[in-house]
Specification:
The complex is a heterodimer of chains A (186) and B (462). Chain A has 186 residues and is mainly α. Chain A is built from nine helices and one strand. Chain B folds into three domains: 47 residues, no CATH class; 131 residues, no CATH class; 167 residues, Porin (Beta Barrel), CATH 2.40.160.20. Classes of the chains: A mainly alpha (186), B alpha+beta (462).
Chain lengths: 186, 462
């Protein structure tokens, strides 16, 4: 993913060939990001498409202070979250099903995954996560956001963020266990 | 319960790492339709916000030159290939000419009245002894509606003199014929004798009709006064010069113009509704918490089942964030609507049956009637805005201009025509308020293209 400065300048100037090159370079990785936030590929491609329009609209604000890939990824993630927010599908479980702090601490994060080299299956598990769990899980695990930041981005409290993350992990672990049991029983 | 740390010990893999390693860098090839749709949306967006500044100056100059060349070639190709008429009969369209029947052939005994009786003495009297008769192939115009007498012509007739005694019957007949001839001439279209052609036209036309010598005298090359209205659109390029640099803006006008024409002169006024835009220039200073590093925290350990002498530590990464200040520029698009009122004096340089070439000049005033300023795009995740600086130059509410227009008209029906007016504007007061480099000087170039309707003017075209 080497994009030189000239291509960025050409994208700012609106040159289509440069825009296409930028798209072809980053689209595969960014589609992977979008896939984690959506239920299916069609939805992910919609988000990718809209997010790249934002990328081209605002690429002039990229100051070169970090990697271009990181900047694009941030735009993609922001757009994905906005997209989800618009659909209003983020579950708000702040008052229900309170999780005790000790319950979170006792959670054993270690899992035995029988087919850990099957990324498609793992992606499917993430896509099957409830919307709210999935967003928090993605932001925390893949984008390295802390709970404070997640709370700010999603407009929830830090405790909610922690709870959602715990539930996501527990949900995933249960699913993995089920998969493992099914496989062993065969 | 009651454990103070996450219990990650035991065989298997940490859940987070499992997902991060397996799908953290997963790639998928997007389907071709994604770029296709994206390309289409970008194209639509570009068209909706088309900016001529992306077009090279050479291309703009070439396009303008090409248009002028095509317009010139069209003009010369369609230019009427007529020479000025020197006689009434050659101007008469075939459809309006009838041959007199044998009964209409008359023999006129000219009156003995002195020539001065019919107004000015303008023609040299023919031989007194000569007896003139109307030729049997003399064209006779069909009677036309009355009231079309040329405003700029004076008809004089001189009867040939004869020494022969006149008989009363013949005299009456001659007088009647003379009146008919005068009426016929009066019915002729004034433009037949007063069209403004490149070739020099004669001011005096003499001809013989029904035994009489008539003379047309064109006193002035003026036509009757009339009104006209035209509606057009005008793309315009505006140039601002300030502090040694020149910036361009593009305006689009819809104009309704009314004019009063008298002789070769005209007075033009009307209303124009214009749309223009410029760039909003913003500088943002914001501070965000950015991940600058990370450290590993040991959250557990266990002895390696394969080698009990080894201890395996379970760690997790913690990002380190710091507050970093950023400066970013953002450019938006501000939209403005203007109303303009010109007052121009026009002069017709050349006029033929279908074409008219003229110039117009005069002052105009523009009013800013609405402005829509777009807000900058501020997307600062995990940060806060410190300062937002607006460097967009403000627009004046009114500004005065001097206009010069070249008017090219083509009448394709009796009253309807198209008009193309390339023009130049010089701004007496700048549309933008003074900035750091003082008030910018401005000028504009444009082409007004529209349709024109002439009220009351009797065009030569049938």
């Amino acid at each position: 993913m080497v994009i030189d400065e000239q291509i960025v300048k050409d994208c700012i100037a609106g040159k289509r060939q440069a825009q296409k090159l930028l798209f072809e370079t980053f689209a595969p990785v960014m589609l992977g990001v979008c896939m984690r936030y959506c239920h299916d590929r069609d939805e992910a491609e919609d988000i990718l498409q809209e997010a790249f329009i934002k990328v081209f609209q605002n690429i002039h604000s990229f100051r070169g202070e970090g990697s271009l890939a990181g900047w694009i990824k941030r735009v993609i993630v922001n757009h994905a979250i906005n997209y989800i927010n618009k659909r209003n599908k983020i579950a708000r479980h702040e008052k229900i099903d309170e999780i005790k702090e000790t319950e979170i601490l006792d959670f054993n994060e270690t899992v035995e995954f029988p087919d850990e080299y099957n990324p498609a299956l793992l992606l499917k598990l993430i896509q099957d996560l409830p919307e709210g769990y999935r967003t928090v899980f993605n932001l925390h695990i893949f984008e390295d956001y802390g709970h404070k930041e997640i709370a700010h981005i999603l407009g929830i409290t830090e405790n909610t963020s922690k709870t959602q993350l715990f539930k996501a992990r527990r949900w995933l672990k249960n699913k993995i266990e089920e998969t493992r049991i099914k496989k062993n029983s065969k | 319960m009651g454990q103070s740390t996450n219990n990650n010990s035991g065989p298997g893999k940490n859940l987070d790492e499992l997902f991060r390693d397996a799908i953290g860098r997963q790639e998928f090839s997007p389907s071709p339709k994604v770029w296709k749709n994206l390309n289409w949306k970008l194209l639509i967006r570009e068209l909706a916000h088309f900016n001529f500044t992306n077009v090279p100056g050479l291309a703009l100059v070439s396009a303008t030159a090409g248009l002028l060349i095509i317009a010139s070639m069209t003009f010369w190709a369609l230019r009427p290939n007529s020479s000025p008429s020197t006689s009434a009969t050659t101007e008469v369209p075939a459809s309006s000419v009838v041959k007199p029947s044998i009964q209409q052939i008359i023999s006129v005994k000219p009156e003995t009245k002195p020539p001065s009786m019919a107004g000015k003495q303008v023609a040299k009297p023919l031989s007194e002894t000569k007896r003139l008769t109307a030729s049997n192939n003399t064209p006779v115009r069909k009677p036309a509606p009355a009231g079309l007498i040329a405003a700029n012509t004076r008809i004089e007739n001189t009867l040939t003199l004869s020494s022969e005694p006149k008989s009363p019957g013949i005299t009456d007949q001659a007088v009647t014929t003379k009146r008919e001839s005068v009426a016929t001439i009066q019915a002729m279209d004034p433009l037949e004798f007063s069209s403004f052609d490149f070739t020099p036209s004669v001011d005096t036309i003499s001809f013989v009709r029904s035994g009489e010598v008539f003379k047309y005298v064109r006193e002035n090359a003026a036509v009757a006064s009339f009104f006209s209205a035209n509606f057009g659109i005008a793309p315009e390029m505006e140039l601002y010069r300030s502090g040694g640099s020149t910036t361009r803006e593009f305006n689009y006008w819809a104009n309704a113009e009314f004019a009063y024409h008298f002789s070769r002169f005209s007075i033009h006024t009307g209303l124009g509704l214009g749309y223009t835009y410029d760039e909003g220039i913003y500088r943002m200073q914001y501070r965000s918490n950015d991940s600058v590093s990370f450290y590993k925290e040991v959250v557990g350990y266990y002895t390696d089942p394969a080698d009990p002498s080894k201890i395996i530590y379970i760690t997790r990464n913690h990002s380190i964030y710091d507050s970093v200040t950023h400066i970013a520029d953002d450019r938006t698009r501000n939209r403005y609507t203007y109303l303009q009122v010109p007052l121009l004096l026009g002069y017709t340089v050349f006029e033929s049956q279908k074409f008219c070439l003229g110039i117009e000049a005069g002052p105009a005033i523009s009013f800013l009637i609405s402005d829509k300023k777009a807000l900058p795009y501020i997307d600062i995740p995990n940060g806060r805005l410190i300062q937002l600086q607006d460097n967009t130059p403000s627009k004046q509410f009114t500004n005065w201009q001097l206009w010069v227009k070249l008017s090219i008209e083509y009448q394709f029906t009796r009253n309807w025509g198209i008009v193309v007016k390339p023009y130049y504007k010089y701004f007496l007061t700048s549309p933008s308020q003074s900035g750091e480099n003082g008030s910018p000087s401005a000028q504009a170039f444009g082409v007004d293209v529209g349709i024109q309707y002439l009220f009351g003017r009797k065009s030569h075209q049938k």
